[in-house]
Write a structure and sequence with these properties.
Length: 438
């Protein structure tokens, strides 16, 4: 097949590589000329995705994969077009479709009969049918279901392990017609392979959910569930600490039976997915009070972390507070919607100087993100662990000369490494050395 993938980001490029590796010819489209040029040199434009560098070098070298900024270069000859461009939300939580509208308009202007257009970007329920179908028909002069087909098939992968996740999880599809469903199934069965999953209720592979609304809802539901679960865990953590209970021990006990799946509490919820997709869901179901309450609970955690620090070490005004970790999760170089930003904002609002250390980022990279870099071993007044990078597990008092308080926001630091320092782990009662004034 000839395949076009629109959006050469951290999901789109691995997808394009996967399709090309399956024996097809793939053209990736991106508006960023630097990204396109980098790919066409056989080089991955961003680090951190397992196996991607090897895939890109090999597939570009063989001619199976290339990139362009020109829709007219890629769309007319494509048997399938896969759309993985970003959808953001505004300050009020409403979807901002401008980037996707532009991409869809460019696809429509170059669409030819017989093409499958599959949207993989997470969408509010009803968007594929109510927005993309009429836009593609109006821009192309073609009729969906007769001249071309539209499907929604959500990406269900994490950056850093995209190729592994593509094999591991069923590929969900929903189309606007029976013929569209057949086309979508045939496409994904040709470009993906699946691990054996005896734990699933049906064989791993392409799962047709019947309509686009069902597949849209499935992606929102599985991600919103995580946000709600984490929000509940964070509520448990705050209460447990107030009554002298270790929430981590409680969660471990609860999850020892098969009907409890409580997630880990944490200082923030970041990334492209969990902070955003509940808002996409709420945009079409504003009465979902459980979802909105969980989102509010998770958004409050950076400020709560500073509260914890002030509880054990006094007001932060005039103090230098080190935040450990800029990435939104461990082991990745990604700050999308990371809690480091509201955490620094909260420290600044209270008169502190917030500085950041992250083993994945150099000083210039942190500065480009608007963060003041810090180095282990430099003096500090206090510490807040934000990201549970494994490098932090062995840190101790000697790495933060002068620090009088430590907040472990992820439960990975060893309090015995901080003798004489007030220490609190999220979800546990604080440990303040005897005689220390707060």
């Amino acid at each position: 097949m000839q395949i076009a993938v629109v959006g050469m980001g951290k999901i789109g490029l691995p997808l394009a590589a996967q399709f090309a590796d399956a024996g097809h010819t793939v053209v990736g489209i991106d508006v960023n000329q630097t990204t396109v040029d980098t790919i066409n040199r056989g080089v991955e434009p961003f680090p951190g995705e397992a196996h991607l560098a090897e895939y890109v070098a090999r597939l570009v070298g063989s001619g199976a994969l290339r990139a362009t900024t020109d829709y007219a270069d890629a769309i007319p000859d494509a048997d399938a077009v896969v759309v993985v461009v970003p959808l953001f939300v505004d300050a009020d939580g409403n979807p901002d479709f401008r980037i996707m509208d532009s991409a869809t308009s460019s696809i429509a202007a170059n669409l030819t009969p017989g093409t499958l257009v599959s949207y993989e970007t997470t969408l509010p329920v009803g968007t594929t049918r109510g927005r993309w179908k009429p836009a593609l028909e109006a821009g192309s002069g073609l009729t969906e279901g007769t001249d071309f087909h539209v499907a929604f098939s959500p990406e269900r992968v994490l950056t850093g392990r995209v190729f592994e996740d593509l094999r591991k999880y069923p590929k969900l599809i929903g189309a606007l017609s029976a013929d569209g469903a057949k086309a979508a199934r045939a496409f994904y069965e040709q470009v993906l392979t699946f691990d054996d999953r005896p734990d699933l209720p049906r064989p791993n592979g392409v799962w047709d959910l019947g309509v686009t609304e069902a597949s849209e809802m499935a992606k929102l539901a599985e991600t919103t569930y995580r946000d709600v679960n984490i929000g509940l865990a964070n509520q448990f953590a705050r209460f447990s600490a107030s009554v002298g209970v270790d929430v981590h021990q409680v969660i471990e006990a609860c999850n020892s039976q098969p009907f409890s799946h409580i997630h880990r509490p944490g200082i923030s919820v970041g990334g492209h997915c969990i902070p955003i997709y509940p808002k996409l869901y709420l945009s079409t179901d504003p009465e979902a009070t459980v979802v909105s309450a969980a989102r509010a609970a998770n958004q409050s955690m950076p400020a709560y972390a500073v509260d914890l620090l002030e509880d054990i070490a006094g007001p932060v005004r005039g103090k230098k507070v080190v935040v450990l970790g800029a990435s939104y999760r461990p082991g990745v170089k990604e700050t999308a919607f990371s809690g480091v930003f509201p955490l620094i904002e909260e420290l600044t609002a209270r008169g502190a100087t917030g500085v950041v250390h992250d083993p994945w980022y150099g000083d210039a990279e942190l500065a480009a993100l608007g963060l003041e870099p810090h180095h282990l071993g430099e003096p500090a007044d206090a510490v807040i662990l934000h990201t549970d990078h494994p490098e932090y597990a062995a840190t101790g008092k000697q790495d933060f000369p002068g620090a009088t308080g430590v907040v472990d926001g992820r439960g990975v630091l060893d309090p015995t490494n901080f003798p004489g320092v007030a220490f609190v782990r999220l979800g546990q009662a604080s440990q303040v050395p005897t005689g220390q004034a707060v």
